[in-house]
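Subject: sequence -> structure tokens, single chain

Hey, anyone have a minute? Need the predicted structure for the following. Not urgent.
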Amino acid sequence: MGTPPRDSSAAEKLILRWDPKSGSGEVRGKMMIFSLDREEIDRYLDAVDELQKSLHATAISSDSPTLQIAVSRLEEEFRSILLSHTSSVLIEPDSVQSEFAPEDFELKDEIPEINLEKQFDHQGSNVSSSSSYRQSTRSIRELDLIPNDAVYDLRCIAERMIAAGYSRECIQVYASVRKPAVLASMKELEVEKLSIGDIQRMDWRNLETKIRRWIRAAKNCIRVLFASERRLCEHIFEGLGSSADDTCFMETIKGPAMQLFNFAEAISISKRSPEKLFKILDLHDTLSELMPDIETVFDQKSNESIRVQAAEILSRLAEAARGILSEFENAVLREPSKIPVPGGALHPLTRYVMNYIGLITEYKQTLVDVIVSRPWSEPRFSGGDPDMPEINLLEFEDHASSPLQLHLIWIIMLLQFNLEEKSQHYKDPSLSHLFMMNNVHYIVQKIKGMPELRTMIGDDYLKKLTGKFRSSATNYQRSTWVRVLHCLRDEGLHGSSGSFSGVSKTALRERFKSFNAMFDEVHRTQATWIIPDTQLREELRISMSERLIPAYRSFFGRFRSHIESGRHPENYIKYSEEDLSDALLDFFEGSPLSQHTRRRSQAGT
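Reply:
Had a minute. Here:
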């Protein structure tokens, strides 16, 4: 055994002077060494170094009572420095963007230069000039959580505790202080501590607000809070023992990271319903955007569980989005309402579905990646269901740029099928056709009004929809006006000679009465029907006028004299051309004729 250095006893005396349990440490033991001047701090550190050298040279066990006293003191000092410089991180709400300009933030990788002469010869450890962890994405913004001089002191203490075999204790002290600070910062960012059960029982409207908050908080947590904590761990512990910095980082961050990700995980496995799709896509986009940062901040083997958890949540969010779209398609097909919409107006389902589809196009890029299968490949739509419509999408498949495009066409087809079913609940066939005309016209106009949707739907299917709308309009006019115009035919009014002199006044009077009665009924009834679109309403009135007025003018011109030459012509000739034209203006206003008459009288005064 070697001879202990001559000044080892002096080192022990200095250490004991700072021990509150010894008589000599009665006063100094109550003070914090690292609150004093640098000379006093370095004198104590030198004493610890000298004691370590002495024990190493003499092969004396590191269980030396004096060394244990020194380590216990260093542990107190370590905790005190951390506590005095630890508080929640104030992060500005918009401080984290998807990118940062290089000049906005400078990465300060180095801690203050350490005097290597004061380190242990056998240890050979120092802060590397190039850290293993680097800011590899421009979105990461690292903050100085603790002042550089305090970081230097913490590293000095950590190096001596680890060299003495107390790395576990040192890391535990660090985590016991820094973990609450991280959680406090997360609380400032409105990250709540909620169980998966708590989240799944929460009202969706409340959750929507929490999702918006989580998205902002997640970016700040990953890119600022966790990244800064990682750097602080490296500045204090890097190179001091086996992966001390990684162990320290995981001890501090694992709990907070799990708390952060548990929220997104709970949403990903919650009950699926159509209104959740877009917030789930927001979560998916956010997590997808953060994955490179997560890979950077948690790049070590010890951090693998966090990387895996994030990747699994991202996958489950994508699966949830696929499932919700499928649920939405099923809901569109099976929406059960059977009460006819008054006046043949827009069905709420039509407006809801088209607005929903419009939102889908805003998430086009995400959904193109997420939706990977064609709609008819899904079990619920693969046959065997007697309620399923026979819809053929194969004609659009060759022109579809993605499965998402086929899903959009599929949804509109399902909507159209359901609307056809609902149109059958109208007792009047004309109103049934008007209902389909209104709803398909709305679908066509919504597609035309959204360029992205129009591109995705494609011109071929848009032409089919336009044809359906026009067909419904034609069917409406045919079912409404064929009977009315039938009254204005010549057949059945003439004698056997076929000449006007042989006109039967009785038959003619009945024909005028029939026309008046039929038109009155159509006028009275269809004034209460509705065409919400102003342009469509005017176009249909013009089309009706072009059919009705010429036919009435011709009939009235040919047979008017026969009625006027008889008794009480006013009983048979009720309308002039102008009267009919005015009456057509009442159609599709959605209110009884009495209200139209009142409005006209008010307009004339």
